[in-house]
Amino acid sequence: MVLNEFTPWVELYRPKKLEDIVGQKEVVSKLAEYAKSLNMPHLMFAGPAGTGKTTAAIALARCLYGDDYRHNILELNASDARGIDVVRGQIKDFARSAPMSGAPFKIIFLDEADALTPEAQQALRRTMEMYSSSTRFILSCNWSGKIIEPIQSRCAVFRFKPLTKEEVKGAVNKIAKSESLEITEKAIDSLIDVSEGDMRKAINILQSLSLTSKNIDENAVYSFVSVAKPMDIGRMVDYAFAGRFMDARNLLFELLINQGINGSDIIMAIHKDIINRKSLTIQQKVKLVDRIGEFDFRMVEGADERIQLEALLAYLSATAFEEPKQ
């Protein structure tokens, strides 16, 4: 199904049914029970971005109300409308009106609810109490700790997990087939690596790449997202461990200057490389991660990223671990 190149694939391929949602079996199972019984408590969806929270809310509304679900659901992004006036005005006005088409209740879906101000949250908890007979709230957030306890205690909390590599790969292959894209296995692995379990990010990158070419490889993925290739980071760390500081430094300059990779992204990639090295002992990894954290803190505090990254490579060269042979 192809509409036009400007149609967001995230919306085009968004699951319409609960059972089509990828990777959240326990959550989907419970939501299906709510839809079947035509009753549910207030809900809170918490978890990383791109894991299906908004999709689950819309799919639940479709199950409850059918194709005309839009009449019985109010969608608000709390990061745009985050003040107390929105709670007292738009939300309260919708909550006090009767459900349409004989529905048992309406739904107010607050996306990014952790962006609500403390005052707005205090007003919201009272609104949730007063209109619970006719309205149910679904709050979606990345950080449930930013939601005040009185609201959390009024909700059934569902934790959404990052999607596995297999789940992201299955969705990417399905979309690539529908859009007649030729994408290599290494490109898919790269897409999974940079998206880190965020399906929305993976789909958006794939769509952007498709606008320039129908043939997508590993280099195209890393070039588009402007992150260092794991192979380049691994080679740079290898040079440092071997005591070849100048070679490691030259490769660092290649990443920073010629490829335009951000210093924070490079230090995160070094961290990932160290963690995944099977040739290092746990004690070595602990020592290195501790120092990486120190250099990262300096960069966050405003220190020059080139000097700090050079200092990190110098530390690795000075340490010069003898890596066990495979």
Largest sheet: 5 strands, parallel
Number of helices: 15
- What do we call the CATH topology of the largest domain? Rossmann fold
Instruction: Specify the CATH homologous superfamily of the largest domain.
Output: P-loop containing nucleotide triphosphate hydrolases
**Structural class of the helix and strand makeup?**
alpha/beta
Architecture of the largest domain in CATH?
3-Layer(aba) Sandwich
The average pLDDT score comes to 86
Strand segment tally: 7
- What is the beta-strand fraction? 5-15%
Mass-distribution shape:
elongated
> Mind telling me the CATH class of the largest domain?
Alpha Beta
Estimate percent helicity. 40-55%
| Uncertain parts | none
Q: Number of folding domains?
A: 3
Between the first and last Cα atoms, what is the distance in angstroms?
Answer: 48 Å
Order of helices and strands: HHEHEHEHEHEHEHHEHHHHHH
Over all CA atoms, what is the radius of gyration?
A: 24 Å
Strand order of the largest sheet: 2-3-4-1-5
Give a topology summary.
Layout: H1 9-12, H2 25-37, E1 42-46, H3 53-65, E2 73-77, H4 84-96, E3 106-111, H5 118-130, E4 135-141, H6 149-152, E5 155-159, H7 165-178, E6 182-183, H8 185-195, H9 199-210, E7 215-216, H10 218-225, H11 230-241, H12 245-258, H13 263-276, H14 282-300, H15 305-319
Parallel strand pairs: 1-4, 1-5, 2-3, 3-4, 6-7
Helix pairs in contact: 2-3, 4-5, 7-8, 7-9, 8-9, 8-10, 11-12, 11-13, 11-15, 12-15, 13-14, 14-15
In short:
The protein has 326 residues and is of the alpha/beta class. It is 55% helix and 10% strand.
